[in-house]
Specification:
The complex is a heterodimer of chains A (235) and B (426). With 235 residues, chain A is an all-alpha fold. Chain A has eight helices and no strands. In chain A, helix 4 packs antiparallel against helix 5, helix 5 runs antiparallel to helix 6 and helix 6 packs antiparallel against helix 7. Chain A is elongated, with a radius of gyration of 30 Å. Chain B has 16 helices and eight strands. In chain B, helix 3 links the parallel strand 2 and strand 3. Chain B is an alpha/beta fold and 426 residues long. Classes of the chains: A mainly alpha (235), B alpha/beta (426). At the A-B interface, helix 2 and helix 5 of A face helix 6, helix 9, helix 11 and helix 15 of B.
C-alpha cells in the first residue's frame, strides 16, 4: 500500500517535472519576447513621439480639431504622445503574440493567427474612422462658414447634417471592414443616407427655391442681373 | 523660377514680325464682349494721340471667352476715322489677340502679357481692365508717361470712386499695405497699372503663377512686389472708374480668399521688408485730381449686419481660435446695438485684421476657412462704415479712410510683438 502510494506520488512529481521542463524554454522565450517587445515598444514610442513633434503633429492636430475632440473625451495628453503610446502598444502586442506562440500551447497558433488578423482589421478600421472623422470635420466646418456667409439661417443644421453624413459613411465602411453585420450595416446605411439626402434635397428644393435657381444659373454661367439691393464693388 | 508656358505659335510669328516695340498695352478679358470694343478703341486713341511716334502693341490675353470677345478685339477699328486726332501714328498700332494658359484668372492673363512685353523689349507697359466703361484716351498717357519720361517703374492708379465702392480696398488692403510697407498707394488693387520692362521681367521670375496670384491676387502682388523690390513708384489720377454691371456679391468669397489671402501670404514672405518700419510716405502723383460724378450705390446694410450677427453666433467657436475674448466681446457688443447705432470702431477693426493675418501665419485653421471666416466681420465693418458715412461728402469719407489707415499704423507695433510670439499685454 505504502509502495503504491509512493509510486503514484513519484510518478506525478516526475510527470510534472517533465511537463515543466518542456514548458520552461517556451516560457523563457515568451518572457524574453515580452521584454524585447517592451524595449522595442519603448524605443518606437520615443522615436515616433519626437518625430511627430518635429513635423508639428500637435499643431496640425489643433488645426484639424483633433486636440479639441481629445480634450472633450477627457484625454489631456498631447497628440504626439498618443502616437507614441499607440506605437508602444502596437509593437508590444506583436511581440506578445509571438510570445504566446512560443509557449506552443495546444490551440495557441489558431488563436494568435486570429489575433493578428483582428489586429490588421482593427488598424484598417481605425484608419478609416480617423480619416472619415477628419474629412467630416473639415467639410462640416466649410459648409458652416459658407452657409453663414450666404445668410442661410439654418447654417448649423446644414453643417451638422454634412458632418454626420460623412461620419455615417465612415462608420459604415469601418464596420464592413471589421466584418460586423455586413448586410445589416449596408442596408441601414443605404436607408439612412438615402433618406438624409432625400430630406435635404426636399428641404433645399422647397425651402430655398430661389437659392437653388441662383446656384444653377451661376453653374450654367448665365448672365445675372445685379443684386437689387447691393451693387458694392468690393475691390 | 517657374518655367512660363510657351506662347502660341501664331503669337510667336507676330512677335517675330513686330520685332521690337516701344509701348505695350495689355487687356486681360473673359466674356467682356459688351465693353472690350470701347476699351480697345480708347486705348488705340490714347496711344495715337499721346505717343504718335512710338511703336505700340495692344495685347488681348483672353481666358477662353465664348461671347465673341476675341473677335471684337480682332475686328476693332484702331484708327477710327470718326475720332478726330491732331496726331497720326507714324507706325500703325499692332494687335495681338491670344488665349492664355495656366490657372484661369487675371494673373495668368497678365503673365502672358508680361511674356510678350519681355520678348518685344518694350520701354513701357500698361494694363487696363476689359470691363471698363469710363476709360479715356488720357489714361494711357497717365499710365505710360511716368515710365517713359519720369523713369518710374510702377504707376498705380488713383480713382475718384463712390464713397461706398471698393470696400475691401478701403477697409483692409489699403490700410494694411500702407501700415506695413510704408507707402501710401491708395489703390493697391486698382486694376489699371503702368510698369517698366525691368519690372515686368522681374514679375516673370517669381514662382507665384500657380497660386492665388494667378487669379484675383495679381494686383496686390504686383504692388507689393514693386514696393518690396525698391522700384520707383508713383500714382496717376485717372478720374472716375466705372465697371460693367455684374453681380459683385456673387464673387465676394473668391475676392476675399484670393486678394486678402495673397496679401497675408505677402506679409509672410516679406517680413524682412515690413518688420520695424514705422509711419508711411506719399508717392508722387501725376494727373490733376478733381471731383467727378459717380453712380449711386445701393447698399443693403440690414443684410450685412444680419450676416455679421449670425457669424458671431454660429461661427463663434471658430472665431474664438483667432480673436482673443476681449475682441470677441467688443464685436458682440457691436452686434447687440440697434442698427442706427451699429459701429465697429477703427482700433477694433485694425486688431481684427491683424489677428487674422497672425492666424494665417500660424495656420490656426485651414487657410481657406480662415479667410472665409473674415467675411461676416468684413460685412459688419462695411455696414458700420456705410452707416457712419451715410450723410458724409466724398471728401469726408476719404478723410475717414485715411484715419483708419493711421490707426493701422499705430496698431502695427502690437502686431509685430504678437508676430514674434510675444504677449501684447506685456
Amino acid at each position: 500500500m505504502t509502495d503504491l502510494w509512493q509510486e503514484f506520488v513519484w510518478t506525478a512529481t516526475r510527470d510534472m517535472g517533465v511537463r515543466i521542463a518542456a514548458l520552461l524554454p517556451g516560457l523563457l522565450a515568451m518572457l524574453t519576447l515580452l521584454a524585447l517587445g517592451a524595449l522595442l515598444g519603448w524605443v518606437a514610442r520615443a522615436v515616433l513621439t519626437r518625430l511627430a513633434r518635429a513635423v508639428g503633429f500637435d499643431r496640425l492636430s489643433q488645426l484639424w480639431g483633433l486636440t479639441t475632440v481629445l480634450a472633450k473625451a477627457g484625454i489631456s495628453r498631447a497628440p504626439s504622445q498618443i502616437v507614441g503610446l499607440l506605437a508602444f502598444w502596437g509593437v508590444f502586442a506583436v511581440f506578445a503574440t509571438m510570445g504566446i506562440d512560443a509557449l506552443a500551447l495546444p490551440g495557441a497558433p489558431a488563436a494568435t493567427g486570429l489575433m493578428v488578423q483582428l489586429l490588421e482589421r482593427l488598424l484598417a478600421a481605425g484608419l478609416i474612422l480617423v480619416v472619415g472623422w477628419l474629412v467630416a470635420n473639415f467639410l462640416g466646418q466649410g459648409v458652416l462658414i459658407a452657409a453663414v456667409n450666404a445668410g442661410v439661417p439654418e447654417a448649423r443644421h446644414l453643417a451638422r447634417a454634412t458632418r454626420w453624413g460623412v461620419l455615417l459613411f465612415a462608420i459604415a465602411t469601418m464596420l464592413t471592414q471589421l466584418g460586423i453585420g455586413k448586410e445589416m450595416v449596408l442596408v441601414t446605411f443605404t436607408i439612412t443616407f438615402g433618406g438624409l439626402i432625400f430630406a435635404l434635397a426636399l428641404a433645399f428644393g422647397l425651402g430655398g427655391r430661389a437659392l437653388a435657381r441662383e446656384i444653377l444659373e451661376r453653374k450654367l454661367g448665365r448672365e445675372q442681373e445685379p443684386h437689387p439691393h447691393e451693387t458694392i464693388a468690393h475691390l | 523660377m517657374s518655367e512660363a508656358p510657351p506662347l502660341p505659335e501664331a503669337v510667336e510669328v507676330q512677335i517675330e514680325n513686330i520685332g521690337r516695340a516701344d509701348l505695350l498695352v495689355g487687356i486681360p478679358s473673359y466674356n467682356n464682349a459688351r465693353t472690350i470694343g470701347h476699351v480697345v478703341r480708347a486705348t488705340a486713341a490714347g496711344l495715337t494721340k499721346y505717343f504718335p511716334d512710338a511703336k505700340a502693341v495692344i495685347v488681348n490675353s483672353d481666358g477662353g471667352s465664348t461671347d465673341g470677345t476675341q473677335e471684337i478685339v480682332a475686328q476693332a477699328e484702331l484708327s477710327d476715322p470718326a475720332t478726330i486726332l491732331i496726331s497720326q501714328p507714324t507706325t500703325p498700332i499692332a494687335r495681338i489677340v491670344t488665349p492664355y494658359h495656366g490657372i484661369p484668372g487675371k494673373g495668368s492673363a497678365f503673365r502672358t502679357i508680361f511674356q510678350i512685353a519681355d520678348r518685344l523689349e518694350v520701354a513701357a507697359c500698361a494694363v487696363v481692365d476689359s470691363d471698363l466703361r469710363s476709360i479715356r484716351p488720357e489714361w494711357l498717357e497717365l499710365l505710360l508717361r511716368p515710365i517713359l519720361e519720369g523713369h518710374f517703374d510702377y504707376v498705380a492708379p488713383l480713382y475718384w470712386r463712390h464713397k461706398f465702392d471698393g470696400t475691401i480696398t478701403n477697409s483692409i488692403v489699403y490700410p494694411i499695405t500702407r501700415a506695413l510697407y510704408g507707402k501710401r498707394i491708395r489703390q493697391p488693387i486698382g486694376g489699371e497699372f503702368g510698369f517698366s520692362r525691368s519690372l515686368a521681367s522681374a514679375f516673370l521670375t517669381k514662382p507665384v503663377w500657380e497660386t492665388d496670384v494667378a487669379r484675383f491676387g495679381i494686383d496686390i502682388w504686383m504692388t507689393t512686389t514693386a514696393i518690396a523690390g525698391g522700384f520707383r513708384l508713383c500714382q496717376a489720377y485717372l478720374g472716375a472708374k466705372l465697371h460693367d454691371a455684374k453681380d459683385p456679391s456673387g464673387d465676394l468669397t473668391a475676392m476675399m480668399t484670393q486678394v486678402v489671402g495673397s496679401c497675408f501670404d505677402l506679409i509672410e514672405s516679406h517680413e524682412s521688408i515690413w518688420f520695424g518700419r514705422r509711419g508711411s510716405q506719399g508717392v508722387p502723383l501725376f494727373g490733376f485730381p478733381h471731383a467727378v460724378g459717380v453712380e449711386p450705390i445701393p447698399v443693403n446694410v440690414e443684410r450685412m449686419i444680419s450676416i455679421f450677427s449670425q457669424g458671431l453666433v454660429d461661427l463663434g467657436e471658430l472665431l474664438g481660435k483667432i480673436l482673443p475674448p476681449q475682441l470677441m466681446d467688443a464685436l458682440r457688443e457691436a452686434a447687440a446695438a440697434p442698427t442706427s447705432a451699429f459701429r465697429i470702431a477703427d482700433p477694433l477693426w485694425a486688431q481684427v485684421v491683424y489677428r487674422f493675418a497672425l492666424a494665417h501665419h500660424r495656420r490656426v485653421l485651414p487657410r481657406d476657412h480662415l479667410l472665409r471666416l473674415l467675411i461676416p466681420l468684413y460685412l459688419g465693418r462695411t455696414a458700420s462704415f456705410v452707416l457712419e458715412m451715410w450723410e458724409a461728402s466724398p471728401e469726408e469719407a476719404e478723410a475717414r479712410i485715411e484715419k483708419l489707415a493711421l490707426v493701422f499704423e499705430e496698431t502695427k507695433p502690437l502686431f509685430e510683438t504678437e508676430w514674434n510670439g510675444g504677449d501684447p499685454n506685456d
